[in-house]
Amino acid sequence: MSRDSPGPERGRGAGRGRPLASAAARPRRPRRVVLPGVQRAPHSQARVSIALPRGAFSVVRRCVKKNSSQEYAAKIINTKKLSARDHQKLEREARICRLLKHPNIVRLHDSISEEGFHYLVFDLVTGGELFEDIVAREYYSEADASHCIHQILESVNHIHQHDIVHRDLKPENLLLASKCKGAAVKLADFGLAIEVQGEQQAWFGFAGTPGYLSPEVLRKDPYGKPVDIWACGVILYILLVGYPPFWDEDQHKLYQQIKAGAYDFPSPEWDTVTPEAKNLINQMLTINPAKRITADQALKHPWVCQRSTVASMMHRQETVECLRKFNARRKLKGAILTTMLVSRNFSAAKSLLNKKSDGVKEPQTTVVHNATDGIKGSTESCNTTTEDEDLKAPPLSTGDGSSVLEGRRHSESKTQTESMQSQLSLCFSATTQSCEEKLHAWDSPGQTLELERARSEPLLTPVVPFVLNRAPLRKQEIIKITEQLIEAINNGDFEAYTKICDPGLTSFEPEALGNLVEGMDFHKFYFENLLSKNSKPIHTTILNPHVHVIGEDAACIAYIRLTQYIDGQGRPRTTQSEETRVWHRRDGKWLNVHYHCSGAPAAPLQ
């Protein structure tokens, strides 16, 4: 239920794509079926329709309750692939979700078990991610940030009243109920949530997402409800300036910063933030959990409960710009990690030194590289959710066990992580802009954390090694095929487009209004009715393409796309989008298997 939408690739895209499933794991055209087992529970009968993002062991589908026509999201888990430990976690998640009924929490309406499958029927949340909605707004102020954190705190206060600790508060788990203006913020993903006894502090395991971990978790001290408040403080900081409070390219130093609470409010971006907002952040990011503000107390803070008179109403354009970059980077990291995991099924290690690069025709699209970009030695990663309890369970037979409804990913084995870590080291270099530097550094937490808890795990499945000396050639190959695909779009050549794309291409782009699109029919409409009839020239410039080679037969490219055209009044126009494409080589031919675009549609509406 991600926000960015698929469209006819009219020329935009970036970052976050859904985790990919193998061709065998995902149906090409979702069919309407009745959920198995629900006939034994008439009140839960649902008809499955549109496929939503899915994970290695689960698929999420839009479904309709037959007796009311009410739409829901059905998370279908293949329990045959789960270990005994994972079964316990699934039962824990369902048990916790059944307790929670709040307008700011994605509600579980039904939990159905049958042989081989388990069904969790949730609210259908169609508004996408909160952070993506913010960057699409024309106006965003400190008061808007107050309204957002107010709703987040309401959800946290509710779960804490029920003695539940979420443990994984982060942007990916903050969704909007719908695309309507003013839609409610919904807290999702209780896969790592735990039950506690009141204000009890205990060691429940090392779990969470690196950038949002609290000092007590990093110290491996007993912890409880305050860990959620710390994460709220990190989120609030980002909501106000668009970048995180703690950052460093070195992961060890990053954790030292968090444990020391070493953050500040630098100029000039914080100069326009009210003292009350900074005060609330300070109370949330208090190192001592016993002195940290509670959710109930935070809701009574003047900046939250009296925002109309306390919070500033000034538009924060710089925050929006930084937040847009923050979104693009974290989504790219998610796409990269997913592709790395999927590529294990696409490649064989023995072919690494034998295969030769395929020739690619040079297209006309302009490519502009940032002269300051380079290869950094530090590691970067997505916001990977980890839980050390996983180490106590038998190793899973396949895949990564990620849960896509909530955007959660479990840690991989040591060997897999090291392979990913070496590949992820070829990432963005910091630019001279302060928020970009901080975002770049923020990307570093993740892989070392997984290594710390994965040392004793056996290798689950072979990982294709990374061949460094082949990388430059492969990167140019991916850039060229991407240019070729964009040329086909600009020329309205659907036939050429289909030859470069996988028939089951999945995409998120603005034209699809926050929905995941699979297949070519959606894109074909725009080729036939707009692109092919466009008589005026279109020129595309690809800025700063970053290619991540993943094994021998998979790669991910991220870039900024500028599209120039002449509008209906004869005036020159330029649009910008941030795009990410995942490529897979099949039978010696590169195919685009996933596309993600952020920003307004780039196809000129002449």
From TrEMBL:
Xref: Pfam families: CaMKII_AD, Pkinase
Record SMART domains: S_TKc
Compositionally biased residues, Basic and acidic residues: 1-12, 406-415
Positions of the Protein kinase domain: 46-304
Catalytic reaction equation(s): L-threonyl-[protein] + ATP = O-phospho-L-threonyl-[protein] + ADP + H(+); L-seryl-[protein] + ATP = O-phospho-L-seryl-[protein] + ADP + H(+)
Region span, Disordered: 1-31, 368-418
EC number: 2.7.11.17
Gene3D superfamilies: 3.10.450.50, 6.10.140.620, Phosphorylase Kinase, domain 1, Transferase(Phosphotransferase) domain 1
GO molecular function, one term: calmodulin binding
Cited InterPro entries: Ca/CaM-dep_prot_kinase-assoc, Kinase-like_dom_sf, NTF2-like_dom_sf, Prot_kinase_dom, Ser/Thr_kinase_AS
Key words, A-Z: Calmodulin-binding, Kinase, Phosphoprotein, Serine/threonine-protein kinase, Transferase
PROSITE patterns (UniProt xref): PROTEIN_KINASE_DOM, PROTEIN_KINASE_ST
PANTHER family assigned: SERINE/THREONINE-PROTEIN KINASE (PTHR24347)
Name this protein carries in UniProt: calcium/calmodulin-dependent protein kinase
